[in-house]
Write a structure and sequence with these properties.
By secondary structure, this protein is of the alpha+beta class. The protein is 41% helix and 13% strand. It is built from eleven helices and ten strands. Strands 2-1-10-5-6 form a five-stranded mixed β-sheet. The structure holds the ligand Nc1nc2c(c(=O)[nH]1)N[C@H]1C(S)=C(S)[C@@H](COP(=O)(O)O)O[C@H]1N2 and molybdenum atom. The site of the ligand Nc1nc2c(c(=O)[nH]1)N[C@H]1C(S)=C(S)[C@@H](COP(=O)(O)O)O[C@H]1N2 has 21 residues, from loops. The site of ligand MTE has 21 residues, from loops. It holds the Pfam family Oxidored_molyb. InterPro entries: Di-haem_cyt_TM, Mopterin_OxRdtase_euk, OxRdtase_Mopterin-bd_dom, OxRdtase_Mopterin-bd_sf. Keywords: Membrane, Transmembrane, Transmembrane helix. One of its GO terms (biological process) is respiratory electron transport chain.
Amino acid sequence: MPLPAPPAALRRGPLREGAFRSRLHEPRTAVVLGRWLGAAVLLCFATGLISHVLQQPPGWLRDHLPSRPVQGYRITQGLHVISGIAAIPLLGAKLWVVYPRLFAWPPARTVRHALERLGIALLLGALLLELFTGLLNTLQWYPWPFPFRQTHFWLAWIAVGGLLLHIAAKGPEIAEHWRRSKPPLPGRRALLGSVAAAVGAVTLVTAGQTVPWLRSLDLLGPRRPDLGPQGIPVNRTAAQAGTVHAPTDWRLRVDGPRPYTLTMAELLALPQTDVDLPIACVEGWSASARWGGVRLRDLLDRAGAAPGALVRVTSLEQGGPYAVMTMPHTYARDPLTVLALRINGQVLHPDHGYPARIVAPNRPGVLQTKWVSRLEVL
Ligand SMILES: Nc1nc2c(c(=O)[nH]1)N[C@H]1C(S)=C(S)[C@@H](COP(=O)(O)O)O[C@H]1N2
Ligand SMILES: [Mo]
């Protein structure tokens, strides 16, 4: 049954007959692109949840977060940013295929149709805002008044909820076009090939910010993981954090059942260890270094800490969201978790946290506290 045409006065622009001439505004192309986009969004969502939980675990999960695999967070956060960036050209292409339906007449045929369109508006709004805020976050640019992390987290649920409802509502149509049509529609392969090439290109020129063997192609990634003092990037410099001059009489204070303080010379006289661990920033870059210092658990044992104790780490930094960090025992007891005094054999640069910083395996960069002044056994 042909759909009614809009009233004569409205039959212009996208509402005139034959306004959309490409053959490719059709369901099979939408289904193929929808599958790719859906896969990217779901991967991005799952890895985003992992990041959220590692950074701010709910109470019941806190003591069960794994400190392995060592490169775990680096990989999941790398995939998060890669899949998020890939979703941008995929969403663009998908929207191009289906946008003529925006001008369907009448705008709502039935209540069900109206609800479906409302759902798509919600899904699209959430997804666009989510990808936009995420992309700007990789540039460390926060030009909005709302808190990034909570907004990004809740928008993700709206987007994925909307996506699942959309898939359910379109189920029969998706099923009908799931398999390749014969004969193939001219032009479809070329379109899909170009979209795949675009996704491949944006991935190749940005993934080098976290994938070492793609580093030389990292043309558009906001960070080069090998640029920065001592060959490692810096997110927040000592000057920005107001800790440029660590006090000359700096002491590490350790509070617990048997509190004590240590000078730098005393710290250096303790057994030292070297660990190879990455800094994996939530903003999408990561880089490995060899960190030298004292095992955190040795310092905690000396203070008489119980094995399951939670540890609070305080920075010299005044204020700032990362000045105080708590560490569950699964990280604190890990033999790879160190209070680092050296990076790649050199004394820490002030921007990397001189006099001392925390480095732990499988933890987001934001929790690798720099300029440490105090440890507390809670
Ligand atoms: N005290 C303090 N520690 C901090 C930060 C900070 O702002 N203040 N930034 C964190 C973030 S977001 C990251 S990614 C790492 C980066 O470490 P780097 O600058 O040595 O590469 O430090 C973390 N430690
Ligand atoms: Mo970070």
